[in-house]
Design brief:
elongated
């Protein structure tokens, strides 16, 4: 545990030095607040752009605050995932290609401790980024559109965070044996495949982690959002990624 804690502090220090602990939360805040601002000021934006057909804006209605907040969280399913995958693709691959991993494993540190420390640091970054982004989105939604239940916002953000944690965990797994860009690409491709499968065949893919995004929206809009399948499958996927990353780190860096 002590070695894991030391490695975790090292990872957090690297996140600070690389400015990831700053720019990734800033990106999440911008993504979060853009949705309520865009929806609220959409008529003015269209008028300013000119050539708006007469009557186009007469039927425009601002969605409910809960729907806007759900859409704001949904923004993290594209650009947010891309940012997280790019930010974590060097987690294991970078040290493996630079030779730093071998120097660490010379010490009495297990590959599992290294993987857990790196994953926990990425989890911390995700909590900070998503927490600030969701808080910013909820603040502007409440100020411009309507009241929100902060309890529902926290619960929905936590559920969506679990979905985002899946892409971070998958990137960690692939970075244990692939080059960083390939690792990020495969992790994003896996999440995109699950999301596409859920869109085309919701009955078959409803139990996968991709269902968490829909459950997050249900918490905000309907006050409900519990289905065991997506939560269990997300937990299993994360455990598989951590165990697989530990085994591959041992195999690729220690002699047989």
């Amino acid at each position: 545990m002590s070695s894991t804690w030391v490695l975790y502090r090292k990872e957090m220090l690297e996140l600070v030095r690389s400015y990831k602990l700053i720019w990734i939360p800033v990106v999440f805040i911008i993504l979060g607040i853009m949705q309520p601002l865009t929806i609220y000021y959409l008529p003015e934006i269209l008028k300013a752009s000119g050539d708006v057909p007469p009557g186009l804006l007469e039927g425009y209605e601002i969605p409910s605050a809960a729907a806007v907040m759900a859409q704001a969280l949904g923004q993290y399913g594209t650009i947010g995932m891309l940012v997280l995958a790019l930010g974590s693709m060097n987690t294991l691959a970078g040290e493996r290609y630079s030779g730093t991993m071998e120097l660490i494993l010379v010490r009495p540190v297990s590959p599992a401790a290294i993987v857990i420390a790196k994953w926990t640091a990425q989890l911390t970054l995700l909590v900070v980024a998503l927490g600030l982004g969701a808080a910013g989105a909820a603040y502007y939604t409440k100020q411009l559109i309507g009241l929100l239940s902060w309890g529902d916002v926290i619960a929905a953000s936590g559920v969506y965070g679990l979905w985002l944690l899946c892409v971070v965990s998958a990137t960690l797994l692939f970075s244990a044996f692939l080059r960083p860009p390939v690792a990020a690409f495969l992790a994003l491709a896996l999440m995109a495949a699950l999301s596409l499968g859920l869109s085309l065949l919701p009955t078959w893919f409803g139990w996968t982690p991709a269902g968490l995004s829909g459950l997050s929206a249900e918490i905000l809009i309907a006050g409900e959002g519990f289905k065991a399948g997506p939560y269990l499958s997300a937990g299993i996927l994360i455990i598989i990624c951590l165990v697989g990353a530990s085994l591959l780190t041992r195999k690729n860096n220690l002699p047989d």
